[in-house]
Amino acid sequence: MARALLTHNLPILISFIFLLFIVVSSGISDVSNESFVFLPSPNSINDGDRSTMFLPLFPPKETSRPRDEQLSRRHLQKSPSSARMPLHDDLLLNGYYSTRLWIGTPPQRFALIVDTGSTVTYVPCSTCEQCGNHQDPKFQPEMSSTYRPVKCNINCTCDNEREQCIYERQYAEMSSSSGVLGEDIVSFGNQSELAPERAVFGCENLETGDLYSQHADGIMGLGRGDLSIVDQLVEKHVISDSFSLCYGGMDFGGGAMVLGGIKPPSEMVFSHSDPVRSPYYNIELKEIHVAGKALNLNPQTFDGKHGTVLDSGTTYAYLPEAAFVAFKSAVMKELHSLRVIEGPDPNYKDICFSGAGSDISELSKSFPPIDMVFSNGKKLSLTPENYLFRHSKVRGAYCLGIFQNGKDPTTLLGGIVVRNTLVTYDRENERIGFWKTNCSEIWDRLNLSPSPPPLPSGLDNTNSSANLTPALAPSLPPEHYAPGKIKIGFVSFYMSLSVDYSELKPRVPELAHFIAQELEVNVSQVHLMNFSTEGNDSLIRWAIFPAGSSNYMPNATATEIINRLAENRFHLPDTFGSYKLVKWDIEPPPKRWETLDMHLFILPLNTSVSYIPKLGNVNESTLHGTSSTVYSKDNDE
């Protein structure tokens, strides 16, 4: 779902409720009903499917501790870790980015929308009688040996029996989520050095509207509030008070997320973010420049109401009326060789242009650069992919992804503005940083290799795989940890697609990015080995190589990749049509390879596998497996 901000003037009511929140809130909070207000999205990639995203009207409740005490406690951390997690989906195609969390013992996997405008994480519960058909099975509390309900107390809203704490989220277009609060072990994946931690989350018993129909399972709340996953980890002193998001570029989607601090790149520019002024993450935007020229605006234009809000769940950007009019005029004055055309949906007055060509790297020749200047004089430079989206009906045409925010004076910057930008929410120092980069290669660019998975708290190597977190499961028998016994060079698999290769070839880099997302590896590890065609079908052999300069792939990594292939945990966008995974192997390091012009590796076709070792609970037939499952638009859901 796509979210946009629109609030109304209710000064007396808001002031009263806000003061009431401060007086009564302590311990577990943010569990009462929240009111939300909305603004329909002016456009969508899919015709006739206009989605809407929402921000809460009222600020989240905070604890009753003095703010300086909260900050001082956050400075007491000792050697904090971080959780490095891949992002999936595409903001413009899906309406959101999602990540994967595992909850419970044994762990249950969920795809959650990352949302800086939400303060609670929730997933569908097995008891839910009105929850949609989502990506993963519902959470089963009864199957987790570590699950505990949050019992009714003075600091939360209780159920009718006054036994358990509940939560409710209501949205203006009648979309809603409600359920009970529970606590369990949450794990962050095999790229995370952060050990599994206990956390409070929502177990849904009711969904309506977009929350019911979306493909993702639920929401991962990254906002400010006691139930936020960030706040909970900070309070446990296991991460520093910071997190980062990096959204993939046009046509690629995906990206990365870090819970905890990272060393900011020297080129990162920061803006002050005031947590007192607004419950949302805000920045101090002062000016917008188009082609090097400042828009002729009142300096206070971007300082209305909540100021300039940065929200990961909002698709596009929304400017106050005066700013939008000036921005649109300035951009159109710089377009000399393009033609104005109608948008993809006649019901919306999208501003679109044709004649720029389909090569994204060439867009800067047709569209002007944009600079956002902060109050400290620093500026964030935007490329065309940060304010344009592809026209869904006209090849080589693009539309403005920045719109007028009705009569609301708030400036709202959604995900389109920060595509291929690392955004660091440095809450401890009350600032937000921006660094333009290639988010599909973020770990390499930050010189961060995937971390070895941590041991789950309270478990040891003798436990069965059923009791392991996803960072370790399925595990390897102890004898396979001995150096030199298993040398895995790469994992290969065949993919059959119902697309002619002449049409598929230009999209091979895009396909490689999606494969990297689904297998949770870096895109630099994904290589095309060879391909063949038969009629209108294409057969491609792919290989997943070790990360970085390593010659061998860790056994746990190879096991996880094979499991994802064998267990049908692999989904491509509908734009690739029907596809089938037909065979997969683990193979020793190749003795030689040649490089293609696309910087992809190809191996000799007679490369053989001398042995197929068994990895933990994955048997030989799985490692050297085949599949008859056909993935298509109809059964992908």
Q: How would you describe this protein?
A:
The chain is of the alpha+beta class. Helix content is 14%, strand content 27%. Strands 4, 5, 6, 7, 8, 9, 10 and 11 form an eight-stranded mixed β-sheet that branches. A six-stranded antiparallel β-sheet has the order 3-13-12-28-29-14, with no helix packed on it. It has a five-stranded mixed β-sheet with strand order 15-18-27-19-26. A hairpin with a 5-residue loop joins strand 8 and strand 9. The longest helix has 14 residues. The N terminus and C terminus are likely disordered.
Give me some keywords for this one.
637 residues; globular; alpha+beta; disordered N terminus; 11 helices; single chain
| Overall average residue pLDDT | 77
Q: How big is the Rg?
A: 25 Å
Number of strands: 36
**Termini Cα gap:** 16 Å
| Poorly predicted sequence stretches spanning 5 or more consecutive residues | 1-78, 450-485, 592-624, 626-637
Quaternary structure type: single chain
Write the layout of secondary structure elements.
Layout lengths: L10 H14 L11 E3 L15 E3 L10 H8 L8 E5 L3 H4 L3 E6 L4 E8 L6 E3 L23 E2 L16 E5 L5 E12 L9 E12 L1 H4 L4 E4 L7 H7 L6 E6 L7 E5 L9 E4 L9 E2 L1 E6 L2 E2 L13 E3 L6 E3 L1 H13 L5 E3 L10 E3 L15 E5 L4 E4 L5 E3 L7 E3 L1 E3 L6 E3 L7 E6 L4 E6 L5 H4 L44 E8 L3 H4 L3 H12 L6 E9 L2 E8 L10 H12 L12 E9 L6 E2 L5 E2 L17 H4 L6 E2 L6
Parallel strand pairs: 5-11, 6-10, 18-27, 19-26
Antiparallel strand pairs: 1-2, 3-13, 4-5, 4-9, 7-9, 8-9, 9-10, 12-13, 12-28, 14-29, 15-18, 16-17, 16-22, 19-27, 20-21, 21-25, 22-23, 24-25, 28-29, 30-32, 30-33, 31-32, 33-36, 34-35
